[in-house]
């Protein structure tokens, strides 16, 4: 009987441990060559950003362990000295980790979480393009400093195309990873690293595909999906919703007034530095393409009507203007999901949004293609 009681006690203990493990995850491992490092920190990413979960002292041989309960699979990180090593964890997992403080490449091993392996794969891809970008930026800064105040615009002309090439190649690699890992939080993590304006159509399509994936309990994923679904009705390829806004002359202006015409909705404000910087380019393009059929309707986010009127006059914005005079809270801004400016929408004669948030030389190139094709 004594042996039977002992046996049942062991089984009970095992079941208890198994039950506990199902309600939490553990991550343990070794920090090799820790030097003066005595403590590491467990952090997590959530809808409010990054927060500290726990900290642990290293043993004499550099070992540590964290045990944490998570209501959903989530992205965590180990802050080891000045570096953060990311991983994905969910309850029931036992994850092993190791790295060395003296490894300048910050390589590490992780097991017990397939999702973490995918995240490691993404970070490896991302780091390639981060390193290439940093090299270009450092070269530019070194040469610019050597030239002092006499830095020619030609220097920017040399390095900007290099930077944009790396940016575009890196973004293409991230898009590929994102679309190949739609059932993984690593794919979601990759998606959040993309330029949300430039790649809005791709991100909306991605959000559409993960709506029914196993992320329903993750608030960060759900907020991402909600934001993209809100932007979908005013994305490229959709019919632009009509609206009425107060004109700068006090008379109402409707989008439907431009039915059958090309029109660019230009969201801006007198207090917006990037908007004012872009205005000369918009003025230039309007002068070129107005005779070919381009119209512009400026929508100001100003609250002060006097400041709005002064900026229109100063920047010589000769097209029609309207405003709700309610900053980002105006009904037009809410309808078009405006959360940063400058923002613009180019609408064709059928009322379809054919381009969105293009500025600078990209705007000129798009208008050239559009109006030469339509001739």
Short description:
With 375 residues, this protein is an alpha+beta fold. Helices cover 43% and strands 24% of the residues. The protein is elongated.
- N-to-C series of helices and strands: HEEEEEEEEHHHHHEEEHEHEHEEH
Q: What is the residue-mean pLDDT, rounded to a whole number?
A: 90
Instruction: Please bin the fraction of helical residues.
Output: 40-55%
Reported CATH architecture of the largest domain = 3-Layer(aba) Sandwich
| Total count of domains | 3
The fold-level CATH name of the largest domain is Glutaredoxin
CATH class of the largest domain: Alpha Beta
Strand content: 15-25%
CATH homology superfamily name of the largest domain? Glutaredoxin
Strand order of the largest sheet: 10-9-13-12-11-14-15
Distance between the termini: 97 Å
Poorly predicted ranges (pLDDT <50, ≥5 residues)? 1-20
The tally of strands reads 15
Structural class determined from secondary elements = alpha+beta
Task: Work out the radius of gyration.
Answer: 27 Å
By DSSP (H or I, 4+ residues per run), the number of helices equals: 10
Shape field:
elongated
Q: What does the largest sheet look like?
A: 7 strands, mixed
């Amino acid at each position: 009987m004594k042996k039977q009681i002992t046996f049942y006690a062991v089984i009970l203990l095992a079941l208890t441990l198994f039950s506990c493990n199902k309600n939490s995850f553990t991550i343990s491992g070794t920090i090799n060559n820790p030097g003066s490092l005595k403590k590491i920190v467990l952090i997590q990413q959530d809808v409010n950003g990054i927060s500290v979960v726990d900290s642990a002292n290293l043993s004499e041989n550099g070992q540590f362990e964290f045990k944490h309960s998570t209501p959903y699979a989530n992205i965590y990180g180990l802050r080891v000295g000045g570096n953060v090593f990311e991983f994905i964890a969910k309850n029931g997992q036992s994850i092993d980790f190791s790295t060395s403080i003296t490894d300048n490449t910050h390589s590490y091993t992780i097991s017990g979480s397939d999702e973490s392996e995918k995240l490691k794969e993404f970070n490896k891809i991302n780091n390639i393009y981060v390193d290439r970008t940093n090299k270009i930026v450092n070269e530019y800064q070194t040469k610019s400093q050597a030239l002092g105040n006499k830095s020619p615009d030609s220097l920017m002309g040399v390095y900007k195309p290099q930077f944009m090439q790396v940016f575009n190649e890196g973004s293409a690699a991230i898009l590929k990873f994102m679309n190949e890992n739609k059932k993984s939080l690593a794919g979601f993590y990759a998606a959040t690293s993309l330029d949300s304006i430039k790649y809005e159509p791709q991100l909306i399509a991605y959000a559409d595909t993960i709506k029914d994936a196993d992320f329903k309990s993750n608030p960060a994923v759900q907020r991402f999906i909600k934001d993209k679904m809100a932007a979908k009705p005013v994305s490229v390829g959709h019919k632009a919703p009509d609206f009425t806004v107060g004109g700068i002359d006090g008379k109402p202006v409707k989008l439907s007034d431009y039915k059958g015409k090309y029109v660019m909705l230009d969201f801006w404000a007198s207090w917006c530095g990037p908007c004012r910087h872009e205005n000369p380019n918009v003025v230039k393009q309007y002068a070129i393409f107005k005779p070919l059929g381009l119209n512009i309707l400026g929508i100001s986010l100003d609250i002060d009507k006097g400041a709005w009127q002064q900026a229109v006059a100063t920047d010589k914005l000769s097209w029609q203007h309207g405003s709700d005079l309610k900053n980002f809270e105006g009904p037009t801004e809410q309808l078009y999901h405006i959360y940063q400016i400058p923002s613009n929408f180019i609408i064709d004669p059928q009322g379809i949004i054919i381009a969105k948030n293009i500025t600078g030389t990209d705007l000129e190139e798009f208008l050239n293609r559009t109006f030469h094709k339509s001739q």
